[in-house]
Amino acid sequence: MKYKFAVFIDRDGIINEDVGNLSKIEDLKIFPLTIKAVKLLNKHKIPAIVVTNQPVVARGWVNEQWLNNTHKEIIAKFKRGGAKIDRIYYCPHHPDANLEKYRVVCKCRKPGIGLLKQAAKDFKIDLKESYIVGDSFRDIEAGIKVGATTIAVKTGSSNFKDSKPHIKVKGLLEAVKLILEKEGLS
Ligand SMILES: [Mg+2]
Ligand SMILES: [Zn+2]
Description:
By secondary structure, this protein is α/β, with parallel strands linked by helices.
């Protein structure tokens, strides 16, 4: 199947509550409205792709297996709510990582665009036609670099610094409704 565009969604502060370096599964609190939002994307066959920086791995607080299990749990929780997250891409690196293995200046840590480019290749989508929804300047700057439409939401850190999001809304559900409207799909 060939899609024209996708909606990229940051994880912490959008999908789930930003507790700052999620490292315990009991701290995973998914915003119920985001399940509704992803369902709406599914209805229109728009890929819902999560792109997330997880320096918590680089710090050595969790390992990648734990992270992958947590992502399986997120996907399962959405599935139980009738929604499908198409894929979760993450960056485990950090330039000041405690663990040497992850101590790199990588291309995938947002505002780097490595995760977006990988997803574009995997899903055969046009990044310029795509949207990115985030709660930080890292999300917004990554989106701007690839020519996507950037949407800032208020459910997370709101650490936007000097970044200039194209659109500002309350949360993911409002963002998705706006995207559908813009695409003539509502
Ligand atoms: Mg975030
Ligand atoms: Zn990385």
